Automatic annotation (TrEMBL):
Name of this chain's protein: Zn-dependent protease with chaperone function
Species the sequence originates in: Pedobacter suwonensis
Keywords: Cell membrane, Coiled coil, Hydrolase, Membrane, Metal-binding, Metalloprotease, Protease, Transmembrane, Transmembrane helix, Zinc
Signal peptide positions (record): none
TM region(s), chain numbering: 36-69, 75-99, 233-252
Domain Peptidase M48: 168-381
């Protein structure tokens, strides 16, 4: 018998309120109707095109055969065959989607059965009964912070029943409660809870059909190319067919835009409905707390992945990443003073929105999901009470939990060759390495994240260092208060809004109306709002610059008071010298990266040959910047012997990169390796110089406090 006992709470007296809430909303029905009308438009257009293609194919085949029969010879056979292929290619283009199957990659997934995990499957059983849908065909585990329902789809999925598979990420189960897991799984099955919801699945499949017809043409293009290679006669008709299929694509693209916009609008309504289902089964708060924590959970898991990615060279891995994910999540929750309940951090709505100070509200017609804020508002309006099904973290539902977690972890690390004797890191060793990474790559807690977003002033003249008295009576923590940090968030929010408003004004982003700070604006009214926000942004930047100077003067004064001004000036001078070069270095990197961007994609030979002239021009400037790094002692700490040899080899070479229709892969690899090395050296050097300065300032504060404590004791 399972140790987890699930108890059902009785529904409130007003049960009709619950039933009504689970019915598709008026907005959903409206979007469903519009989607169906858009599909009908596509079907009518498509049938007309197919009919025309069939007629053209018959006429082409007839003309081709008559030409051959009339005068059988090589040229007429080629022309007749070309005509037949011309019609067939157009018809194939229009019906190829019938044979297309969209298969979901399962290589990262591990199937799990009811016999292996009875408690989890009991929960799933309860959900599918409550939702009124079918039990999943198969259940899979992965390492992700995610859950989803998926299936392989094809044209025939619109007419034949398809059983869905359930994917549950153990990175998710490891960071949510049992209640929250039930809410998330109920949300996934909520998409298929009623017959009316199946409209969404039908619209999705039609959308896939149109997309495949328009954009998934690799197999078709290969087939057409093979026909064109038969002879120049055939090639002529292949080109002609390409012109016609291009026209068909143009027509269908217009239809697709209409269908897709309605599909996306319907998808957003389906998300709200699925949230309603989830809230009715587990309670509104269960889904709200999960939504607010997912970003932290995902960030924590990615931190663990990043840690072991850096350890590949040392052949270090672990048998179980999930306790380490939980440790990192708890660490950051503690660092940000997030309260913990039942061993899980409860990320408040205020904290979740802490960094987002945007006041611009748009109806994003190209988004398939509503924003988290909109979903939370919807869930609060529903206000379904929390239904407690069990206590504890969801991962504890698993039988033989450690074995399962180790199995999924092994699948992750099996993709990397660690040799015969890898170094296995346990939680204790990971914690030690993580804290060392924090020490080396994060700024001290004294700064409260201030310098994660700001740099110390880097354009100070020599006279700025002559001032040694500080007249503002503030504790050092006052400079880095939450109030001052909110100025940074507000400034960034205004600048993000400004960027989007300018796109709305010049119609790059086409919206007719939008809300800003609770007021409705039109596209024509952007200019006044932009001017106002530009003034607000300048005022905030002035405030922050003034604060930056006050912080600088405080530490300058403190260094003089402690007899360590010369050290402070040296640290600051190194930081300024390195930072002063960064803008030109970043410009150089941007230009070489932009010039070589075509090399990452499939590109026509003629275009490659043209672009290579630009690459060689930018390569000259890039090599100059690389050699400057070698010659400048400020960068020597970040350049080892292997790096030095690569830079010297690359800068002394005259590579062609491309000739005779092919890339020289070794030369291209060396170019990109040099670009990556350049970025690493300049960014790490800049960061280290900034960190050394900030760490020295912390040292001054610690010395100051220790002496103050000593004086009090005396």
């Amino acid at each position: 018998m399972s140790i987890y006992q699930f108890s059902y709470l009785a529904l409130p007296n007003n049960i009709f309120m619950y039933k009504n809430a689970l019915q598709p909303s008026a907005n959903f029905k409206k979007m469903a109707r519009k989607s169906i009308l858009a599909i009908l438009l596509f079907v009518v257009t498509y049938l007309l095109l197919v009919s025309a293609a069939v007629v053209l194919t018959i006429l082409s085949a007839y003309a081709g055969l008559m030409l051959i029969v009339a005068k059988p010879m090589v040229i007429t056979i080629m022309l007749g065959g070309g005509l037949i292929c011309f019609g067939v290619l157009i018809l194939i283009f229009l019906v190829k989607f019938i044979f297309k199957v969209n298969k979901i990659d399962r290589s990262h997934l591990t199937q799990v059965t009811k016999a292996e995990q009875p408690a989890l499957f009991k929960m799933i059983d309860e959900i599918v009964i409550a939702v009124g849908t079918d039990f999943p065909k198969k259940v899979y585990f992965s390492s992700e912070v995610n859950a989803s329902v998926f299936y392989d789809s094809s044209f025939w999925s619109m007419f034949l029943p398809v059983r869905k598979n359930l994917h549950i990420g153990l990175g998710l189960m490891n960071t949510i409660s049992i209640d929250e897991l039930k809410a998330i799984l109920a949300h996934e099955f909520g998409h298929f809870s009623q017959k009316s919801m199946r409209t969404g699945s039908y619209v999705y499949n039609v959308n896939q059909v149109i997309y495949n017809t328009l954009y998934d043409n690799e197999g078709y293009s290969h087939f057409a190319q093979q026909i064109a290679n038969v002879s120049n006669y055939f090639a002529f008709f292949v080109v002609l067919a390409g012109k016609i299929t291009g026209g068909i694509q143009f027509i269908l693209k217009k239809i697709y835009d209409v269908v897709n916009l309605n599909h996306l609008a319907l998808s957003r309504e389906m998300e709200f409905h699925a949230d309603t289902v989830a809230a009715s089964i587990a309670g509104s708060d269960a889904l709200i707390t999960a939504l607010h924590r997912l970003q932290l959970a995902d960030y924590s898991l990615n931190n663990v992945f990043s840690y072991y990615n850096d350890k590949i060279k040392d052949k270090e891995k672990t048998n179980n990443i999930f306790p380490q994910q939980k440790f990192v999540m708890d660490f950051y929750a503690s660092l940000q003073q997030i309260r913990t309940v039942h061993n899980l951090p409860i990320v408040s709505e205020e904290h979740y929105n802490k960094f987002n100070k945007s006041k611009l509200v748009l109806k994003d017609q190209w988004s398939s999901h509503p924003s988290t804020a909109d979903r939370v508002t919807h869930l609060k309006q529903l206000n379904f009470p929390l239904k407690s099904y069990g206590s504890g973290i969801a991962i504890d539902l698993l039988v033989n939990k450690d074995e399962v977690l180790e199995q999924i972890t092994k699948k992750l690390f099996d993709a990397v060759d660690y040799g015969d004797t890898p170094l296995i890191s346990d939680l204790s060793k990971f914690e030690e390495g993580f804290f060392e990474n924090q020490r080396q790559n994060a700024f001290h807690q004294l700064y409260n994240g201030y310098f994660d977003f700001r740099n110390p002033p880097h354009d100070l003249g020599a006279d700025a260092f002559e001032k040694t008295t500080f007249t503002i009576a503030l504790d050092v923590e006052d400079f880095f208060s939450d109030e001052n940090l909110s100025l940074i968030y507000l400034h960034d929010g205004i600048n993000e809004d400004l960027n989007l408003l300018k796109q709305i004004e010049d119609k790059t982003f086409d919206v007719k109306t939008f809300d800003y700070d609770g007021k409705r604006f039109t596209q024509d009214g952007c200019r006044d709002l932009i001017s106002r926000l530009e003034n607000e942004s300048r005022d905030l930047e002035d405030q922050l610059k003034k604060l930056d100077i006050q912080i600088f003067e405080y530490f300058l004064s403190l260094s003089a008071e402690k007899g360590r001004k010369e050290e402070f000036v040296n640290f600051y001078g190194t930081y300024q010298a390195i930072h002063s070069l960064l803008e030109d270095q970043n410009n150089c990197h941007h230009k070489i990266a932009q010039a070589t961007s075509f090399m990452h994609t499939r590109t026509a030979i003629e275009t490659i040959e043209q672009q290579m002239h630009l690459v060689k021009n930018e390569e000259i400037k890039f090599k100059e910047e690389l050699l400057k790094l070698l010659a400048n002692p400020l960068y020597s700490e970040q350049i080892n012997e292997e790096d030095k040899k690569l830079i010297e080899k690359f800068t002394s070479s005259d590579y062609k990169y491309f000739a005779g229709g092919s890339y020289f892969n070794l030369q291209v690899d060396e170019l990109f390796e040099s670009i990556q090395l350049f970025v690493k050296i300049i960014n790490v050097t800049n960061f280290k110089s900034k960190k050394k300065l900030l760490d020295f300032q912390v040292e001054l504060v610690n010395v100051h406090r220790s002496k103050s404590v000593s004086l009090i004791a005396d």
